[in-house]
């Protein structure tokens, strides 16, 4: 008779799957950091600058009038949505995680550049706390999404089992990290605004 798995077994297997995915996570992290640096040192056209600023204003306006739990929920739901898409749309040859990686890296680098220009280098330390949990969760999502895309191309017979392992990573590792990140970021956003 087959022994039933405990929650601990599922956690162990999920962490093992993340560890086995380290080369994909490293690829995504490298792309993210490269585009973060490019974004930081970029000088955009005035039109692009206005476009990004308008998009950031739209995002900031979403938080107006929200109480603390609503702010936390807004942040969490956005991050969980992006992470889920990065994971499971990665199966389409890994395209979505790659695009998400370089676009997020570029925008974060650009925002850091603007924030440093206004408030100085200390601004980076103000942004740091919520990134401790959010960035690893999103990078892991994109890396495993890239792995799923690779599985579709090179090991299609393993796709079903890889998708199941990915689901457990999403539920047991990524979701808790994003909950913690949303609470920290939500408190920062709520009390700073």
Quick overview:
The chain has 193 residues and is mainly α.
Please characterize this protein's 3D structure.
The chain has 193 residues and is mainly alpha-helical. It has one domain. The chain is 84% helix and 0% strand. The longest helix has 34 residues, at 159-192.
Q: Tell me the β content.
A: under 5%
Distance between the termini: 58 Å
Rg from C-alpha positions?
18 Å
The class by helix and strand makeup works out as: mainly alpha
Notable features of this structure?
193 residues, mainly alpha, 7 helices, globular
Task: Give the helix/strand layout.
Elements: H1 7-20, H2 22-41, H3 46-61, H4 68-88, H5 95-119, H6 122-154, H7 159-192
Helix pairs in contact: 1-7, 2-5, 2-6, 4-6, 4-7, 5-6, 6-7
């Amino acid at each position: 008779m087959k022994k039933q798995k405990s929650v601990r077994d599922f956690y162990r297997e999920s962490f093992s799957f993340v560890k086995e995915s380290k080369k994909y996570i490293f690829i995504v992290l490298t792309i993210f950091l490269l585009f973060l640096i490019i974004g930081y040192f970029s000088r955009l056209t005035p039109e692009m600058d206005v476009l990004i600023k308008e998009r950031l204003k739209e995002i900031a306006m979403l938080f107006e009038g929200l109480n603390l739990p609503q702010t936390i929920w807004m942040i969490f739901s956005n991050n969980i949505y992006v992470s889920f898409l990065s994971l499971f749309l990665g199966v389409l040859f890994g395209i979505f995680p790659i695009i998400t990686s370089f676009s997020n890296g570029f925008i974060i680098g650009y925002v850091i550049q603007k924030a440093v220009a206004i408030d100085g280098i200390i601004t980076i330390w103000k942004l740091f706390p919520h990134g401790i949990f959010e960035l690893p969760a999103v990078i892991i999502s994109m890396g495993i999404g890239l792995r799923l895309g690779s599985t579709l191309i090179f090991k299609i017979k393993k796709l079903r089992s890889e998708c199941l392992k990915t689901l457990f990573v999403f539920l047991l590792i990524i979701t808790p990290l994003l909950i913690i990140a949303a609470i920290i970021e939500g408190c920062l956003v709520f009390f700073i605004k």
